TrEMBL record:
This is Spore germination protein. It comes from Brevibacillus fluminis. GO terms for biological process: spore germination. Belongs to the GerABKA family. InterPro entries: Spore_Ger (IPR004995), UPF0353/GerABKA_families (IPR050768). Keywords: Membrane, Transmembrane, Transmembrane helix. The keyword Transmembrane helix applies.
Length: 493
């Protein structure tokens, strides 16, 4: 095919794409060629300085010899390029590659010279740590992959690439440690990824919803993170990560409830402080879920459980409130949720100030107007603070949603209703699974060895094995922990 025929065919396929550039030139003495690429999506500096200069310096004039020099002698200063059918050239162009057309040839040359504007690596905006690394993923999948690769310098670290989305052609990468992750887990993640048939994949949240074993459960069944060190640590435990191009969020599977309650900060602090903070976190999770409903149940059905002086204070504050405790709690909780959502939508410089000032003004005005009691304002404020302690946003959102039906049960049946609601949640959690991993592992079923990194955070030298839920090779420490301690004891004897 001549250059004109090739470019005409490409123009027909890419009709209406104004950002496609067709640059014709003569390579060597008299070989007509053309470069086709997307404007703003390729490395123009490399094209001008390296590709065009190398092509025009070729001495041979015959197209066959021209091809021979390109592939046998590797004349182009590019690490990887290949000859592909013209029909596949459209996909290559849309993948931000440069297409080299040669007069008289049926095949075209695919030059991987993608380059476009991207955000630089910065601190994680949501998962900050005092002592940990200050790097976060960006929207470029290649950069994200390199951030993980830099932490796992082993040939066992595998990355499989695939393309999902008939229209978006989104690059997706599956990461795992061969020999550490269970092969059945790797195969299942690969099967679910390849079974996704959708026209557009614009974010990792789409993959997350396809991954859910129980799509109607309020609890998240996939963990996500914006920190490369969290991904590296999860891979070392035997989990599988999924990177989706165009989003700074990486998915981790499988997940348990306790892995969602852990923070990266736990592993950068001393184990005593990390364990204490973990216990505080567990306590405030219960407060976030049960404090408003407990207040409703006790003040409505079980006032005898409240100390007399405190009961008199609560009764005096509620004397002018025209609503029962349940309606009062609903008013304050919905108002607090509205303020929280407004703080997210308002521009960042004023969002935090609006949420704090708005809460103070609304709370004070509501108490003075007699709409709610001061005790209810305190209860809702403590509940809101407790919800902020939950490390995983989606888990916190799930608990916030479950808070309302438990409040209704408390308003109707008292503490008995709260007990029934918690039993229903527990039954649901026991039956919930993430990639065939029990959601309450290692508590239900009980695995004593894995409790060292669940209820507590044991010292590193005591965590000899990886979690049994998703690790194939469970051996973590390669030799006896802290051998110098035993040597010192022998010397003292």
């Amino acid at each position: 095919m001549t250059i004109q025929e090739q470019t005409d065919w490409l123009r027909t396929q890419l009709n209406g794409c104004f950002d496609v550039v067709y640059h014709t030139f003569v390579a060597g003495p008299n070989v007509p060629c053309a470069l086709v690429y997307l404007r703003g999506m390729v490395d123009l500096q490399t094209i001008q300085d390296d590709v065009l200069h190398a092509l025009q310096a070729l001495p041979q004039s015959d197209a066959t010899l021209f091809y021979s020099q390109l592939f046998d002698r590797k004349q182009l200063p590019i690490s990887e390029y290949e000859a592909i059918p013209l029909e596949d050239g459209v996909t290559a162009i849309l993948q931000s590659h440069v297409l080299l057309l040669v007069d008289g040839e049926q095949r075209v040359i695919d030059l991987p010279l993608a380059s476009y504007e991207k955000r630089s690596v910065s601190e994680p905006p949501n998962e900050s740590a005092v002592r940990g690394p200050r790097e976060a993923f960006i929207e470029n999948a290649q950069v994200n992959l390199s951030l993980v690769r830099r932490r796992l310098k082993t040939p066992e670290f595998k990355s499989e690439a695939m393309i999902i989305g008939t229209k978006t052609q989104t690059n997706v990468y599956m990461l795992y440690l061969q020999g550490v992750s269970k092969q059945s887990l790797v195969d299942e993640v690969r099967r679910r990824l390849t079974s996704i048939e959708i026209d557009g994949l614009l974010g990792s949240s789409v993959v997350e919803e396809f991954f859910d074993d129980s799509p109607f459960s309020p609890f998240p069944q996939i963990q996500y993170t914006e920190r490369p060190d969290v991904v590296a640590g999860s891979l070392l435990e035997g989990r599988v990560a999924v990177i989706v191009d165009g989003t700074p969020i990486v998915l981790l599977a499988p997940v348990t409830l306790f892995s969602l309650l852990q923070s990266s900060e736990d592993y950068y602090q001393r184990y005593v402080a990390a364990t204490w903070i973990r216990w505080i976190r567990y306590l405030f999770i219960l407060i976030s879920l049960l404090l408003p409903s407990t207040y409703i149940a006790v003040t409505t059905f079980h006032p005898e459980m409240i100390p007399t002086k405190l009961l008199i204070t609560i009764a005096a504050s509620r004397e002018v409130v025209p609503f029962p405790a349940l309606i009062e709690a609903f008013i304050m909780e919905i108002s607090f949720e509205a303020l929280r959502e407004a703080a997210v939508r308002i521009p960042k410089p004023i969002g935090q100030a609006v949420s704090i000032i708005g809460a103070l003004i609304i709370g004070t005005a509501a108490v003075q107007a007699g709409i709610v009691s001061a005790a209810m304002v305190i209860i809702v404020a403590l509940t809101g603070i407790a919800s902020f302690i939950i490390p995983h946003f989606d888990l916190g959102l799930s608990l916030r949603l479950l808070r309302f039906p438990i409040m209704v049960l408390a308003g109707m049946f008292g503490l008995f209703g709260i007990t029934c609601g918690m039993l229903l949640i527990y039954i649901h959690l026991v039956n919930l699974r993430s990639f065939d991993t029990p959601y309450l592992n290692p508590v239900t079923p009980l695995v004593f060895g894995d409790l060292k990194d669940t209820l507590i955070r044991a010292p590193w030298w005591l965590m000899r094995s990886r979690p049994s839920a998703y690790a194939n090779d469970r051996k973590r420490l390669q030799r006896n922990e802290r051998p110098w301690v035993h040597m010192q004891e022998e010397n003292q004897d």
